[in-house]
Amino acid sequence: MATIITHPIPALVVNQFTKDIPSKRSLLMYSILLTILPDADVIGFGLGIQYEDMLGHRGFSHSIVFALLVSFLIAKFRLKYTGKYLYQGVIVLFLSTISHGILDGFTNGGLGVGYFIPFDSTRYFFPFTPIEVSPIGIRNFLSMRGLEVLWSEAKLVWIPSMLIFLSYLVFKKLQKRKG
Ligand SMILES: [Zn+2]
Q: Would you put residue 137 in left (φ > 0), alpha (ψ -120 to 50) or beta?
């Protein structure tokens, strides 16, 4: 994974794009949760599931099918969205969930991500992997290596996300001025 600090950032960004959707707070909470949920698959290690299995780490829980499924279920049955809000809610939740797998695909360690499980069990990385993979375990994390990881994520995720968000604010302001 990238670190648990960085994964939720895309959720904060995509939620800015929903306007009058009901239960905005809950939607944001679920979006953040879903950016972290895919790594619950590490439980599998304790159950004897191998990393490279379809249910292994960076497997099904990091796939497009999983992201769609869980987003639909939460939007429909937890947030009780209907009509256009169901559609918008699923998109926000889906983008949040899949952003986790996308970030993992840019890290420089571990196995790749099974985006197309269950149809194709191949593990993928993006052609360039600039994000330092996060060390597993808190002790390793609180080290110089942890700092390096955070710095690589700051450059590659935090700052670009802030720029997207700021340009959105500027765009909105300009639009308001026009109208
Ligand atoms: Zn992950």
A: left
